[in-house]
Amino acid sequence: MAKGSSDTPLMQQHRAIKQKYPDAILLFRVGDFYETFGQDAVVASQVLGITLTKRNNGSASENELAGFPHHALDTYLHKLVKAGYRVAICDQLEDPKTVKGIVKRGVTELVTPGVATNDKLLEHNRNNFLAGLHFKDDNQIGLAFLDISTGEFFIAEGDKEYADKLLQSLQPAEVVFQRQYQKRFKETFGHRFYTYALDEWIFDESFARENMLRHFGTHSLKGFGVEEMSHGIIAAGAIFHYLKETEHPNLQHITHVQRINRDEHMWMDRFTIRNLELVGNGNSDQRCLLDVLDNTVSPMGARLLKRWLLMPLSDIGKINQRLDAVEWLIAHTDTRQQVQASVKQCGDVERLVSKVPLKKINPREVLHLAKGLQQIEVLKQSLSQQNNDYLQRLADALNPCPLLSDNIRRTLVDNPPVAAGKGNLIATGVHAELDELRSIATDGKNYLARLQQSEAEQTGISSLKVGFNNVFGYYLEVTNAHKSKVPDSWIRKQTLVNAERYITPELKTYEEKITGAEEKILAIEQGLFDELLRELQDYMAPLQTNGQVLGILDCLCCFAGNALQYQYRKPVLHNGSALMIKDARHPVIERTLAAGEQYVANDIDLDPEGQQIIILTGPNMSGKSALLRQTALVTLMAHMGSFVPATEAHIPLTDKIFTRVGASDNLSGGESTFMVEMNETASIINNLSSRSLVLLDEIGRGTSTYDGISIAWSIAEYLHHCPQAPKTLFATHYHELNELEEKLPRIKNYHITNREVGNKIIFLRKLAPGGSTHSFGIHVAKLAGMPPKLIDRANEILSWLETKHAHDNEEGQSMQQKVKQLQAPKTDAQMQLSIFDAHTEVFTDIRSMLEAVDINRLTPVEALLKLNEIKNKLK
Ligand SMILES: Nc1ncnc2c1ncn2[C@@H]1O[C@H](COP(=O)(O)OP(=O)(O)OP(=O)(O)O)[C@@H](O)[C@H]1O
User: Whose CA is nearest to atom 10 of ligand 1?
Assistant: First the structure.
């Protein structure tokens, strides 16, 4: 950008402001436009698709420029922030009409992904958290999460695993932390978050505490239960500082802070959240559990449901409270429908309330809040009479704020406009002067009509008309034919081709009254509206509580509706350790089956004292993964307080669900390495407890067969022998693991049944005791359209390998013995290649090509390409 004293005053002002926000795109208001200059203009033109021009602003060099009309701000702001930019909005702070010289300008808001308050930047069904993180060391991390658009504020503390789980569960839109921890943050939590680094001095306990106490107006933080959480408080302090830095001074809607306790929730780590497909991954084709369960009718409900899903409860009392309420709502259809109708009509109470201190709420939204309060009154009355404790308590917490509601409805007209500044929003009878001015304004207009008539009669000018223009206001117009009848007292103002225009002193007096009245009307209306907003601020806390209660009611009704619609049943949560689910189904797959297809339900029993570990084998595509996942999903749903897709479910209180899927299932995330698989498995082994549920899906398949079997075997052994004895489902293609059943008492083999008809498999999908003998991988290859020659050859090799395996066994080598000779398979690999004549160069090539292939990780298409390569070599 051009610099120097030859800049215009406007550009000098721009440069001074831009210096304060070097890492943000500065939207600089000039007249009716927001302009960007220099590098900002280059970026804005690329991201927004607006024209980039160059102009010489009175300086020696050219300056890039790109702008858009001010009324398009919301649309363009949204695009810039979504593209990952921080955007500083610089407005004119004075009315240009009243200023001589350059208008004062200043940044009124710095918008970043985590501090967005604009409707367009927010998704109604998800929170938009800004997270603050304070690293003390790996075992002491303070966290704070604030959704400025709803006022929800949480504090937590824990080690890095716990911090990771919280970040996964609350999925903040932006994370701020100490500058010198940038590398550590990426190493620990990956690259998935939008981050911003802050100076170290901000992360100071007394500074943070002071900030919090000043904000809440309290002497200590004891009332919030967070007094002792120094690291969490420091993280919260960083958030407050960041809000100040981004010009967000109006935070009266943050009325309290809540602590998140580690042991109050059942935890899932990021792999489990992903493997169980709980929330969408941005791939709209794939349905996730949240899609199926979310039949809420309000934004508060939708946001809360997501939190319930990612942070299920671990307190039986609280879970049963939800389950009983859901059961009650199922039995009382009328009340449920009435609750849902009321919740729906209330709108997004949380976000509307948060707009009050920001002065972003419009008259129509204020009236909406008041109408919501009427619904809350109805809800409160209806629920407090019902015989369900939890619903009654929720009803008690609702506050219809009658004074506020009455006042709003009395003050505003029935259908107020969206914009506050244009008048017509205050009802008649609210303000005497306003009513009088309004009658002057309307009467004034009537007067002009009467004046036209009487003057016409007095002067005999039948063509007389009263008109108005911006140059000299109201006038009397007389056609040339009647010009001679005009009295001397009239003052001529304009001569037209066919007519003359005059003003009279009387006309001007009335004109002043009318226009003065209109200006005054606008000012009084604005004043009254501001007063309403001030009154609303006093009700911030009860209004927010209403929003939260409405969210809970919405979720409970949603669970009741789901139970009825999808035939879910009430689970029994218990403090024991045995898990028993009868006729369990996968809630997502059963919703996506083609018409006429029926989901095959299965029973699952796991018990640390009996059947602790199930080794599950079965053909490819038979439903092993589905069975594992449905067991986890039923357990999870029960901990949310939802009914479950089963006919009966006895669920032990579970502290953690772990799932690991063999590496090649995760190719897309660039995390396909065996190392990742092993890291993940190691984290299970190191974090499990006797209350954990462990699901292992084809663990070990990311490496050579013998390595894989050995590792899978020893993991199963470890889980069996470890004192925590976690309930485990282990799906595998390694049939060798079936030998474990004979050796270890709490390991049981199961398989998923199928029937072979001719050379076809029919999947019966029923779980049955005992292992299965082979995988039908070659059959799947055939289904995928591999050439018959290739399939025949694969069958030949398979039977050769099976004979060889049987022969080895005859020689008395059990699998366990083989596992002990871990390295042997590497040299043994030669046997697989004796099928080729290795004397020619071509075959040596093919041999090394095949040696390099890992069949376990080869997709059908890759196999075809390899085959094509081999064929070409033979040519
Ligand atoms: N119980 C069931 N009832 C009906 N359809 C099912 C059932 N279980 C699984 N399916 C269907 O079969 C498909 C394959 O299931 P799944 O992925 O669980 O197989 P798998 O045995 O784990 O296969 P692979 O070993 O190849 O990973 C599912 O996507 C689903 O459409």
Answer: 623
User: Is 640 one of the annotated binding-site residues?
Assistant: no
Mean pLDDT of the chain: 86
pLDDT of residue 833: 39
622 annotated ligand binder: yes
Which atom of ligand 1 is least distant from the CA of 665? Answer: 27
Q: How far is the CA of 186 from the centre of ligand 1 (A)?
A: 36
Q: Checking DSSP bridges between strand 656-661 and strand 693-697, what pairing results, if any? A: parallel
Q: Please name the residue whose Cα sits nearest to atom 18 of ligand 1.
A: 623
The answer on whether 623 is annotated among ligand-binding residues is yes
Test site for ligand 1: of 586, 589, 629, most ligand atoms within 8 A of the Cβ: 589
Confirm or deny that 139 is annotated as ligand binding. no
Q: Is residue 551 annotated as involved in ligand binding?
A: no
The whole model's pTM is what? 0.80
What pLDDT, on the 0 to 100 scale, is given for residue 423?
A: 82
- Atom 11 (ligand 1) nearest CA: 623
Instruction: Give how far Cα 831 sits from Cα of 357, 509, 705, 747, 861, Å.
Output: 76, 111, 14, 33, 26
| Residues flanking ligand 1, CB < 6 Å | 589, 599-600, 618, 620-626, 765
pLDDT tens digits, 566-601 = 999 999 999 999 999 999 999 999 999 988 889 999
Cα(631) to centroid of ligand 1, in Å?
A: 14
Residue having the nearest C-alpha atom to atom 31 of ligand 1: 589
Ligand 1 centroid – CA 763 distance (Å): 9
- Domains defined for the chain, CATH in brackets: 9-111 (3.40.1170.10), 124-264 (3.30.420.110), 295-401+539-566 (1.10.1420.10), 432-531 (1.10.1420.10), 572-787 (3.40.50.300), 804-874 (no CATH)
The C-alpha atoms of residue 749 and residue 611 are separated, in whole angstroms, by 10
In terms of pLDDT, which residue wins out, 553 or 664?
Answer: 553
Report yes or no: 497 and 399 within 8 Å, Cβ to Cβ. Answer: no
Mutation pick for ligand 1 pocket among 583, 593, 604, 621 (CB with most ligand atoms within 8 Å): 621
Contact criterion met (CB below 8 Å) for 77 and 121: yes
Q: Which long-range contacts (CB under 8 A, 24 or more apart) does 354-358 make?
A: 354/117, 354/148, 354/149, 354/150, 354/151, 354/253, 355/117, 356/252, 356/253, 356/533, 356/536, 356/537, 356/540, 357/250, 357/251, 357/252, 357/253, 357/537, 357/540, 358/117, 358/248, 358/250
pLDDT category of residue 61 using cuts at 50, 70 and 90: low
CA of 625 to the centre of ligand 1 (A): 6
**Contact (CB, 8 A) for 598 and 666:** no
Question: Tell me, what's the ipTM?
Answer: 0.98
25, 85 contact by CB (below 8 A):
yes
The answer on whether 142 is annotated among ligand-binding residues is no
pLDDT digits (tens, 9 = 90+) for 598-652: 999 999 999 999 999 999 998 878 899 999 999 999 999 999 999 999 999 999 9
Angle (nearest 5°) at CA 232 between 226 and 233? 70
Summarised one tens digit per residue, pLDDT across range 474-512 is 899 999 888 888 888 899 988 988 899 999 888 888 888
